Amino acid sequence: MVCDTSVSNFNVVRFLLLPRMRKHPAAFVHIPLELRDPNGLAVLAMIVCLTPGTSWAEISRDRSMLLLHALEVEDARKLADFVKSRYESLLMEIFE
């Protein structure tokens, strides 16, 4: 997570200081979730909120879909896959 946060910090600084170099628009991304444990979801929420440039916007009532906002989204599917493989899968090993 430290590496991801550092890279995101750099990207947000670039996004703010060099608006002409913005490569992709901000977007909301739907991410299907397999993780259902409330504690695991709370940790995922903290990870997302601590990563600069991303924000946890909403979770569906049945906890099956996360709505994530990101400052720059090149490929929504790629971002969803990253969150699932990098964070959700590890949290599922811990909490489920």
From TrEMBL:
<dbReference type="GO" id="GO:0005886">
    <property type="term" value="C:plasma membrane"/>
</dbReference>
<keyword id="KW-0812">Transmembrane</keyword>
<dbReference type="Pfam" id="PF01899">
    <property type="entry name" value="MNHE"/>
</dbReference>
<keyword id="KW-0472">Membrane</keyword>
<keyword id="KW-1133">Transmembrane helix</keyword>
<protein>
    <submittedName>
        <fullName>Na(+)/H(+) antiporter subunit E</fullName>
    </submittedName>
</protein>
<dbReference type="GO" id="GO:0008324">
    <property type="term" value="F:monoatomic cation transmembrane transporter activity"/>
</dbReference>
<keyword id="KW-1003">Cell membrane</keyword>
<dbReference type="InterPro" id="IPR002758">
    <property type="entry name" value="Cation_antiport_E"/>
</dbReference>
